[in-house]
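Module 6 notes. Inverse folding takes a fixed backbone as the condition and produces residue identities as the prediction. Think of it as a translation problem where the source language is geometry and the target language is the twenty amino acids. Below is one complete input and output pair. Work through it position by position during the lab.
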């Protein structure tokens, strides 16, 4: 009975938009499918607190009277960016998803933020090939954001992780193991 009440309380908090530590941890590890992604959601997930916040800063997040400010996200978003099998060619669905990511990156909130674009692969196949494929896919995402949306390439660093960091260790071919993760950082990548 107590577990049911706790679960109901957590569900209510999430439904009302509240963020508990449990919800934030879960959000960090969830892979967002294209239909689950909104530009606002990406901004919230990838926003970083100001480095030298003093109160009146560019990163100020206005709040209506009586409301609590939204906490900053994990600075990370796992996206299910799909590719043609065994290639670095983005699917049409992936391009639509990256269009939302570009809009988020162009927001005032994320204007001073750089990103590590991490490509991940599942564990099927040769480890060296998976590493190469994940690097190529991360580079394809960066190229799309730069050429189609004019995102400065200095804000993006492609990184292939291969199959080293699976989210679903029980199922080798799980879709969440083939993902692209955007990690917010204040440090611009080195050329």
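Target side of the pair, the amino acids:
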């Amino acid at each position: 009975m107590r577990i049911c009440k706790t679960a109901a309380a957590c569900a209510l908090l999430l439904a009302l938009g509240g963020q508990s530590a449990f919800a934030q941890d879960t959000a960090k590890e969830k892979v967002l499918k294209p239909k689950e992604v909104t530009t606002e959601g990406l901004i919230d997930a990838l926003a970083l607190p100001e480095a030298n916040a003093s109160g009146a800063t560019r990163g100020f997040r206005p709040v209506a009277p009586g409301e609590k400010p939204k906490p900053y996200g994990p600075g990370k978003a796992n996206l299910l960016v799909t590719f043609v099998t065994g290639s670095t060619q983005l699917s049409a669905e992936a391009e639509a998803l990256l269009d939302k990511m570009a809009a988020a990156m162009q927001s005032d909130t994320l204007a001073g933020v750089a990103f590590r674009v991490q490509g991940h692969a599942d564990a099927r196949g040769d480890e060296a090939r998976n590493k190469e494929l994940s690097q190529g896919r991360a580079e394809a995402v960066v190229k799309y954001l730069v050429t189609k949306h004019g995102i400065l390439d200095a804000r993006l660093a492609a990184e292939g992780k291969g199959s080293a960091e699976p989210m679903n260790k029980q199922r080798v071919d799980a879709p969440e193991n083939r993902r692209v993760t955007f990690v917010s950082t204040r440090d611009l990548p080195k050329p």
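Reference fact for the lab report: The first helix runs from residue 2 to 15.
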